[in-house]
Design goal:
The protein is of the alpha+beta class. It has helices at 3-16, 21-33, 39-45, 57-61, 67-80, 96-102, 111-119, 124-140, 150-153, 237-256, 269-272, 276-284, 291-302, 315-320, 328-349, 370-373; strands at residues 159-162, 170-172, 174-176, 189-191, 220-223, 233-236, 359-360, 365-366.
């Protein structure tokens, strides 16, 4: 998913869930900030590197791919963008290494989604925003894993967009490797990562081999994922994104205190119903950015202006404060560390070493992060 859903659509969901306009803006800001909070940004504002929730392309290109480096990559991407659906999945093929990677495949309605939402309870809008990012990405990023792996994440030339055009119901997707080229839905042309035969190449992280195509709400497609022995899988983003929105409303109602317990596979379609047709149209229109329409809906729902996302907005406050923990970004950092610790610990306790050991931010120490995990509190 991109800014249009993580920021503007999340604002709409928070308003429908009963949050004030101010809290809804804070939740949506922190949802999008998950895609911005890199080691580079944290270094700039003098924040802890361990709180990174994403990695810039330049950081990934220079990232180590030894055991420690790969664990650091996996901690970030599995915790916030590719939340594993089933850490104990039955895998009928391959050795232990393959099974460990397979069990990191992202998908909605897994145990970690419930743990993520419950972790955010009573921890403020920053934690709610972090949780909503992880929850919504389980729908967009399903079938991919947040760890570099050719055997899990690779795709091939068999990749077709499914359309409503009777003359061209299936449109072949043509991938290129020019990072300066804009994705072109009309031509079916999208930028993806270079094919690399190395199992641990960062080119094989997440949905890099499918480019940004899985991030677009309109995308309906069939393809051959590597983990499925190249058997065809169909992905329906319009349906998935609508489910993601309805699930966010339900989850946010739980965080707001209006729902006593959070349960997976539950969606507040009643609250969304008056706007369902409009939301489906926004999601389904073939374009790479739906921000304007989501923003317009948010302004109608809230009766006020929805300001544009500004990555710089809270940085000076944090950098210049003597009480950083009490600042807006200080609370975001606390929420990010808690989420990363919870997911990493869950992966580790499942017997899977791919994300290393967990950090316990409350105790200001690692269980055994040290050199092997590469975390630096």
């Amino acid at each position: 998913m991109q800014l249009d859903f993580h920021y503007y659509a999340t604002f709409c969901a928070a308003i429908l869930a009963g949050f004030s306009r101010g809290d809804s803006l804070a939740i949506s800001y922190c949802n999008q900030f998950v895609d911005e909070c890199s080691v580079t940004l944290l270094s700039k504002i003098k924040g802890p590197a361990a709180a990174a929730t994403t990695q810039l392309q330049s950081e990934l290109l220079n990232a180590r791919t030894d055991r420690s480096g790969l664990q650091n990559i996996t901690r970030i991407w599995s915790s916030f963008h590719f939340l594993p659906r089933d850490l104990y999945a039955e895998v009928g093929r391959g050795g232990k290494r393959y099974k460990n990677k397979f069990r990191l495949i992202c998908g909605p309605n897994g145990a970690l989604v419930a743990d993520t939402v419950r972790l955010a309870k009573d921890r403020g809008p920053q934690a709610a925003g972090v949780a909503m990012h992880a929850l919504s990405d389980t729908w967009a990023h399903r079938y991919f894993a947040g760890t570099p792996s050719l055997v899990i994440n690779n795709t091939d030339y068999h990749f077709y967009e499914l359309t409503d055009d009777e003359n061209e119901p299936e449109k072949p997707i043509r991938f290129n490797h020019n990072p300066l080229a804009a994705d072109d839905p009309e031509k079916g042309s999208y930028t993806n990562s270079l094919f690399q035969t190395s199992e641990k190449s960062i080119m094989n992280l997440g949905h890099g081999r499918a480019g940004h195509f899985p991030d677009y709400g309109y995308a309906r497609y069939r393809y051959l994922p590597a983990w499925g022995d190249y058997r065809e899988v169909v992905k329906d983003n319009p349906s998935d994104y609508f489910n993601a929105f309805c699930q966010m409303v339900y989850a946010l109602k739980y965080l707001h205190g209006d729902v006593p317990e959070f349960a997976v596979d539950t969606y507040d379609e009643d609250a969304v119903a008056p706007y369902a047709d409009r939301i489906r149209r926004i999601i389904g229109e073939r374009r790479t950015d739906a921000s304007a329409d989501w923003r317009a809906l948010g302004e109608e729902l809230s009766g006020g202006k929805v300001e544009e996302f500004d990555v710089l907005k809270y940085q000076d406050e944090y950098r210049d404060s003597d009480a950083k923990a009490d600042t807006f970004l200080g609370r975001f950092i606390a929420a990010a560390l808690a989420q990363k610790s919870m997911v990493t610990d869950s992966i580790y306790r499942s017997g899977n070493p791919l994300s290393g050991f967990s950090v316990e931010p409350k105790k200001k120490k690692a269980r055994r992060a040290g050199k092997e995990a590469g975390e630096n509190e």
